[in-house]
Design brief:
Elements (H helix, E strand, L loop, with lengths): L5 H17 L1 H5 L4 H9 L1 H4 L7 H30 L6 H13 L2 H31 L1 H14 L10 H4 L6 H10 L6 H13 L2 H6 L3 H11 L5 H17 L2 H20 L12 E2 L3 H19 L9 H15 L16 H8 L4 H8 L1 H13 L2 H20 L2 H15 L3 E2 L1 H19 L3 H4 L15 H14 L12 H4 L1 H14 L1 H7 L3 H15 L10 H15 L2 H9 L13 H13 L12 H16 L2 H7 L4 H18 L10 H23 L5 H10 L2 H18 L8 H7 L3 H10 L1 H15 L19 H13 L2 H8 L19 H9 L4 H7 L2 H5 L10 H14 L50 H9 L6 H18 L6 H16 L16 H4 L6 H16 L7 H17 L12 H9 L4 H11 L5 H4 L12 H6 L3 H17 L1 H9 L4 H10 L8 H14 L2 H13 L1 H9 L3 H7 L11 H20 L7
Antiparallel strand pairs: 1-2
Length: 1250
């Protein structure tokens, strides 16, 4: 037994007294000892001063002294595991350390010791308390007598009963109460007995043997004619529901439900009928509603705790409820004389069936509810469906003015607390609608359908019910039949039906089974079809109804299955099209709205809201590649841009409000409405940037700068609210940054500045919300996790075209001194301050003096940063695919020599980084298949058959012997095939251009510094491959100059295009033969494939439409990468989702791959196969190859999405293991499925937009 000194004992007693004194009010207010214990156990959660109590401080120090060292050792062990490559989250570490601590011997000894100490202290306090009790016994007796006499007048308060009476309420007392409650007793005696019962602790009442008898008696006494007496019984019930365990409240609930069931079943009770309605001021009705309401309150609370009890308790509650609600009276008489069933009264107190929603939420109770509904109480569902059908039929038969008149009369009658029969029917309808809407969410609930109704010949199927709900959104009146003006919209049938349909849309499985079919979509679109025909949509179909329809359509369009249904209909492969699909109709209607070509709503205040709602539906559609393809013919971007320009002019003309004028509020409201509409239109335009082709359309509107500025403003607002809830603009930013004009717009809007400022702030100060479980002894990551997100945002911006716009033709500041307050604001500033540290001033600005001093040392310190730096330097100085260059690892290795790789600090590059890869030329005579392919070129068959024969033979070789298609054989194949195609007018897409310039003519022309650097890299790579010789640099320079002169003849203007990697690739393939290379390019330039393989070919070319030239966007982006994204979503959906989760667009990385002709991503042989495949089989194979690459990389992409570095992985890493020939069969399948659409669009790049 632990020993405690007298001083320590007195100190602990004082601490405990302080604690109990502080929580005295909470404990004395507890209804039972169990509740008091619960209060103490959860004191930390409820008491803000918890950690200031001396006793809590003592416990914390005691635990720290006993277990602190053990916890630290455990944390250090896990930290070392983490450093060795095992990554654990914060919660995982805490859980593990806590578990190990609780299982330890030290913990058990500490608990026992603490328990012994506290037992001594508490026992001493109890003894002292008993002594004080004896000394003040007389005073306590007097207080108890006063309390006993006050119980009868205490208004049922039991706040102190548990502590003061728990030992005084015995079996005899309960029997006495039972006798006193007898109807034969005087009223005063019965009141007093009931008051005593209400004052007793519920737990004591429950433990008495007479409890069951009491419960039965109370149920009988609920029918007592004395309203005060029955009200007090309900008060006891309410108190029991609140304070008692489930097995006690279950008995109270079931007895109350049984009483009500018998009450409604009895013909002796005067239950109102539909014709008389319900007068709430009637005492009998009031008492009945009180009982129903008490039942309903328990229904809504029970699900929060019944899972902790045996299932039979829950099932008894559920069954007693369903049994009560299934009570039906004889229906032989007229409907108007129908006696109201219990469900009408329940609907009055819980109109939206919240009780059913809560019961269906958890699987535990939902299973029981659905099982009972199916086996015994299906009539409940039948009557609910019947009620909805009847209400809809009423809406169809009643005229609009009658419905509105009826609604107005409802408002008058509500003041007298009276509900007419029609109002009760409406309330029951709302309850039924809510109940059915919740039921349909669940599979077992949907299995209850179809429902057979007595009034209909055919059963009501799921589709029938959903069509009915849909029609309610526009057939029913917008003015509800109940509730105060502040709640009108909440209970209108259209709003309720819309809410139910939206909830069903959000449940994918339910939506696919119920909503996504032609019948429901047609019902939704019917008002639009009628309006398009120039007729009124439907009775009472208003702007509000159209807004409801638009909200539902937007939900449907936001899900893949729903979007497919809108785009192609239910039978997307069927050739029969009776009417336009949903997407076409929505686009036509939206365009009419935007162009204000519908007169029925002109001048309405709600008209802009209707327009906004339907353009939002269109936004969901054209925000996807496949959706945009369908909506392009409607030129919605032009209509939205026109509406925005018009609204923008209006906002500029709004007069400035004059203080004191009556028109101030009106002007202010008008201004807000116009500004909101203007922002809505800008947002609609901005969402075109979600796809490559959509970005081209946005660029053509001339509003890209305003849209990007709007996006930045939204981004900035969200940034101020919460760091973790920024607008999901990641993909949009990436798409916009993939074009030169978009990059400029991002810079001008302040977006680039904001990202760089945030990055610098994180580098300088770190993030204040990063959890630190245990600091590491040494950093193991080249970049801090708190900065990674900011760096990735910058990486997203730096696409191939954006780099030149943001960095090109700029020089480094290279200042003599950098102030500590000087914050970078541009990409060039970040390069200057973080990457090219070529001066002491830059080093001092980043590091302290002691840190910067080591930079003067010549020895390398092997840490994670130096390893990363060495990797980067080797990477940027080597060219080649995954098998052609050897890159040093980015992590230290285990063992005695953690980093055996030499540091690259000066030229030449160490030989260990050079691969032994050597390219071999293929002997044409060695292979018979290759000979057959070459033989094809000598035959003079029909042109089409000849081409197909060549392609078929090429595919055969690529599948069987891909390696022989290389070297001289490949060059000969390409030359002959392109020559034949260029001489065939049907195969030529561009006209022949006369070119007569000689080497002497172009010799003096200048190439950009980027091109000169590219030439050096090309020659270095060609020599490494043993394909180029000395002097190749001059020849390649001449080829590039000729190409510039040749293409300039066909260009609308001149601008920077970067280095031509396609020409560089051909030059190496042609073994450095400049004449052969340029001759091939002249012939190749006539073919459609040249537009997509040779990017400078169509750069601002006169062959493109004027608006495309003005946008500066290349066909590879708005055509090839657009279809790459579209096919990726269909063929490799997990990868497509991964891109969106990462806030990155597939189009950007594909543009980079294609622009640099896969250099550094593929080995040379695969680059040759990429070019040959596209030349032989068509430009659409460029798309298929990219899809094949994503399919190949799927697992890597998913992994790097989890580690949140997908952008870095795709931009830096080579395509390991990918071979074009491995995916030929897969690409042939893609060709069969997609070629007609792709080739048609690729050929149409020359067509002027309409």
């Amino acid at each position: 037994m632990a020993r405690v000194s007298g001083e320590d004992e007195a100190m602990l007693q004082a601490m405990l007294r302080q604690l109990f004194q502080s929580v005295k009010e909470k404990i004395t207010g507890a209804p039972s000892l169990e509740c008091a214990e619960e209060i103490l156990l959860h004191l930390e959660e409820t008491d803000e001063n918890f950690h200031n109590y001396e006793f809590v401080k003592y416990l914390r120090q005691y635990i720290c002294n006993t277990l602190g060292s053990m916890i630290e050792e455990e944390m250090e062990k896990w930290t070392s595991d983490q450093n060795q490559g095992e990554e654990f989250g914060y919660d995982t570490v805490v859980q593990h350390v806590t578990k190990r601590t609780q299982e330890s011997k030290e913990y058990k000894e500490m608990i026992q010791s603490l328990k012994n100490i506290m037992m001594i202290v508490v026992e001493s306090m109890i003894n002292k308390f008993e002594e004080d009790e004896i000394r003040s016994q007389e005073r306590q007796k007097k207080i108890q007598k006063e309390k006993s006499s006050s119980y009868c007048t205490d208004n049922c308060s039991d706040s102190d009963s548990s502590f003061n009476q728990s030992y005084k309420f015995c079996q005899g007392k309960l029997q006495l109460i039972l006798d006193q409650l007898d109807p034969g007793q005087p009223k005063e005696v019965r009141y007093e007995a009931l008051q005593t019962l209400c004052s007793a602790p519920p737990s004591d009442v429950l433990n008495c043997e007479n409890w069951t008898t009491l419960c039965e008696k109370l149920t009988v006494y609920l029918s007592d004619p004395d309203p005060v007496f029955s009200d007090r019984i309900l008060k006891f019930y309410a108190q029991t529901f609140t304070l008692s365990p489930l097995h006690m409240t279950k008995e109270i609930y079931t007895s109350l439900a049984k009483y009500l069931e018998l009450y409604f079943a009895s013909r002796e009770n005067h239950i109102p009928t539909l014709s008389t309605g319900i007068d709430i001021s009637n005492p009998n009705v009031t008492h009945l509603l009180k009982k129903i309401r008490l039942l309903n309150e328990y229904q809504k609370e029970a699900p929060s705790f019944w899972i902790r009890h045996p299932e039979k308790y829950m099932e008894e509650i559920v069954e007693s409820t369903l049994s009560l609600l299934s009570v039906k009276h004889d229906q032989s008489h007229l409907v108007s004389q129908k006696i109201l069933d219990p469900i009408y009264f329940l609907a009055l107190v819980d109109t939206k069936a919240v009780w059913f929603k809560k019961w269906m939420h958890a699987y535990y109770s939902r299973t029981a509810v659905l099982r009972l509904l199916e086996k015994k109480y299906k009539s409940l569902i039948t009557t609910a469906v019947q009620q909805c059908v009847q209400y809809f039929e009423l809406c169809e038969t009643m005229k609009g003015d009658e419905v509105l008149g009826h609604s107005k009369s409802c408002g008058i009658k509500q003041k007298t607390f009276y509900y007419s029969g029609q109002e009760l029917q409406y309330i029951y309808f709302i309850h039924s609608l809510s109940l059915l809407g919740r039921l349909l969410i669940y599979t077992q609930g949907r299995k209850l359908f179809p429902i057979k109704l007595k009034t209909r010949k055919d059963s009501v199927s799921l589709t029938d019910l959903l069509v009915l709900f849909t029609q309610l959104t526009y057939h029913s009146p917008t003015c509800p039949k109940m509730a105060s003006p502040g709640h009108l919209e909440n209970y209108s049938p259209a709003s309720m039906a819309t809410e139910v349909l939206c909830i069903l849309c959000d449940q994918k499985e339910c939506a696919i089974e119920c909503l996504y079919n032609n019948s429901v979509i047609e019902a939704l679109l019917q008002p639009i079809r009628n309006l398009m025909k120039g007729t009124k949509a439907a009775p009472n179909c208003s702007e509000t109804a159209l807004i409801h329809i638009a909200h539902i359509l937007a939900r449907i369009a936001s899900v893949e299955e729903g979007l497919t249904l809108l785009l192609y209909g239910e039978n997307m492969n069927s050739s029969e099209e009776k009417s336009p699909t949903g997407a076409h109709l929505i686009a036509q209607f939206s365009k009419k709205l935007l162009d204000e070509d519908i007169s029925i709503f002109s001048g309405s205040e709600m008209f802009p809201v209707v327009k906004g709602a339907f353009t939002s539906v269109c936004r969901q559609i054209y925000g996807t590649c496949e959706g945009l393809q369908v909506l392009i013919p409607y030129s919605l971007h032009e209509s939205i841009a026109k509406a925005w320009k018009k609204t923008s002019l209006l906002s500029e003309r709004i007069p400035t409000p004059v203080e004191g004028s009556d028109s101030v509020s009106l002007v202010s409201q008008e201004s807000q409405n116009i500004m909101a509409w203007e922002e809505n239109l800008l947002d609609d335009l901005l969402n075109f940037a979600a796809t490559p082709k959509g970005l081209l359309l946005l660029q053509r509107t001339g509003a890209i700068n305003e849209c990007v500025t709007f996006m930045f403003n939204q981004y900035a607002k969200k940034l101020q609210i919460s760091r973790h809830k920024k607008f999901d603009y990641g993909v949009l930013v990436t798409q916009v940054a993939s074009t030169a004009a978009g990059a400029v717009a991002l810079q001008n809007s302040g977006f680039v500045n904001a990202i760089i400022t945030e990055l610098w702030a994180n580098l300088e100060c770190g993030r204040d919300d990063v959890r630190v479980t245990h600091p590491r002894y040494t950093p193991v990551d080249p970049i801090d996790q708190s900065c990674q997100k900011s760096f990735l945002a910058l990486v997203n911006l730096l696409s191939y075209p954006a780099v030149f716009e943001l960095v090109g033709n700029q020089s480094l500041p290279n200042k003599a001194e950098y102030s500590l307050r000087e914050v970078p604001t541009s990409v060039i500033d970040i390069i200057d301050r973080l990457i090219i540290l070529n001066s002491e001033a830059k080093i001092r600005s980043l590091f302290n003096y002691e840190q910067s001093h080591i930079f003067g040392l010549r020895d390398f310190i092997i840490d994670s940063l130096s390893v990363e730096r060495n990797h980067v330097l080797v990477r940027i100085n080597l060219i080649g695919g995954p098998m052609e260059r050897i890159l040093p690892p980015r992590l230290l290795e285990k063992g005695n020599e953690p980093y055996p790789w030499p540091m690259f600090s000066s030229y030449p590059l160490p030989n260990c980084y050079l691969s032994d890869c050597v390219t071999r030329s293929t002997d044409l005579k060695q292979d018979s298949d290759l000979g057959k392919l070459l033989l094809c070129f000598k035959m003079s068959d029909k042109q089409t058959a000849w081409i197909e024969n060549c392609r078929r033979q090429f595919c055969k070789i690529m599948k069987a012997k891909p390696d022989i298609i290389s070297g001289g054989a490949l060059v000969e194949l390409l030359e002959k095939f392109v020559l034949h195609l260029s001489e065939s007018p049907s195969e030529c897409c561009f006209p022949s251009v006369e070119y007569t310039a000689t080497d002497a003519n172009v010799k003096n022309e200048n190439l950009s510094s980027v091109q000169q650097l590219g030439i050096k890299m090309t020659v270095r790579y060609g020599k490494f491959l043993n394909l180029l010789k000395d002097g190749a640099e001059n020849d390649l320079t001449l080829v590039l100059k000729h190409c510039e002169r040749f293409l300039k003849q066909q260009q609308a203007s001149r601008s920077h295009t970067g280095h031509d990697w396609f020409v560089s690739s051909l030059f190496i393939m042609m073994l450095g033969d400049k004449e052969k290379t340029f001759q091939f390019l002249q012939q190749f330039s006539r073919l459609l494939t040249s537009a997509f393989l040779w990017l400078p070919r169509l750069h601002i070319s006169r062959y493109l439409p004027v608006d495309t030239i003005e946008s500066g966007i290349h066909p590879v982006y708005f055509c090839s990468t657009h279809y790459i994204e579209m096919l990726l979503k269909a063929e490799v959906p997990l990868v497509f989702s991964a891109f969106h989760m990462s806030g990155f667009a597939p189009s950007q990385i594909c543009l980079q791959w294609i622009t640099q002709c896969f250099w550094n991503y593929l080995d040379w042989i695969e680059i040759c196969h990429y070019i040959a495949t596209c030349v032989f089989l068509g430009p659409d194979y460029q798309v298929y190859i990219c899809i094949a690459i994503f399919k190949h990389l799927q697992q890597d992409i998913l992994q790097h999405t989890q580690t949140q570095d997908l952008q870095v992985f795709l931009k830096e890493e080579a395509l390991h293991g990918f071979r074009v020939s491995d995916y030929f069969e897969y690409m042939e399948i893609l060709e069969q499925n997609y070629r007609p659409v792709l080739l048609r669009d690729m050929r149409n790049i020359r067509v002027q937009s309409t």
